[in-house]
Write a structure and sequence with these properties.
binds zinc ion; 8 strands; 24% helix; alpha+beta; 167 residues; globular; three-stranded antiparallel beta sheet; 3 helices
C-alpha cells in the first residue's frame, strides 16, 4: 500500500468539516491501509483522513503500546481531568505548541467493517484522540496556543528545566 502525501497547514482542505463514512467497503479499507503506511513512514502517532486530502471521518491513533487504532466516525463521549503539554502535527511540520487537553478521553467509533466500539485512554493517547477528532471539524491544534516553538527551542527549554529527554 502506498503512503500518501501529507497536506500541510495553509491548504484549505484542512479547514473543512468532514463527511461521515457510510460505506464500509474496499475503498475505505484501502484508505485506512494507506493512512497506516503514511503514519508509519512519517513516524507520527496520529493521522486524520483530511491530512491526506480525503474529507471523510476516519482517523488513526497509535497508543503507547504502539497499536494503531482505526476510528471511523469517532465521537468523544466522555472526558475527565486536564493535562497540559506540547503537541505537534504532521500537517504543521517542525512546530509545537503548549495545549491543554483532558487527561482521560473515551471515544465511540466504528471499525473498518462498521461495528461500533469504544476505547478509552489517558495521557498522550487521550491527547491524540482530541487532536485527531478536531481535524475532522477542520480544526488544528494551533488554535489552542498563542505561541509555536521549534524543536530547537523545545530542546533548549528542556535543558534549562534540567529534564531528561529519554526516560
Ligand atoms: Zn494533526
Amino acid at each position: 500500500m502506498p503512503a500518501r502525501k501529507i497536506i500541510t497547514r495553509g491548504d484549505p482542505v484542512l479547514t473543512k468539516a468532514c463527511h461521515p463514512v457510510t460505506r464500509f467497503d474496499e475503498k475505505l479499507h484501502a484508505l485506512l491501509d494507506d493512512m497506516r503506511d503514511t503514519l508509519l513512514q512519517a513516524q507520527g502517532v496520529g493521522l486524520a483522513a483530511p491530512q491526506v486530502g480525503i474529507l471523510r471521518r476516519a482517523v488513526l491513533v497509535m497508543n503507547e503500546r504502539e497499536e494503531i487504532i482505526e476510528l471511523v466516525n469517532p465521537e468523544i463521549v466522555f472526558t475527565e481531568g486536564e493535562q497540559e503539554g506540547f503537541e505537534g502535527c504532521l500537517s504543521v511540520p517542525g512546530l509545537y505548541g503548549r495545549v491543554t487537553r483532558p487527561e482521560r478521553v473515551r471515544v465511540r467509533a466504528q471499525n473498518r467493517d462498521g461495528q461500533v466500539f469504544e476505547v478509552e485512554d489517558t495521557g498522550i493517547t487521550a491527547r491524540c484522540f482530541c487532536h485527531e477528532c478536531e481535524h475532522l471539524e477542520g480544526r488544528l491544534f494551533v488554535e489552542h496556543t498563542d505561541r509555536l516553538y521549534t524543536a530547537e527551542e523545545l530542546d533548549e527549554m528542556e535543558q534549562e528545566n534540567g529534564t531528561e529527554r529519554e526516560q
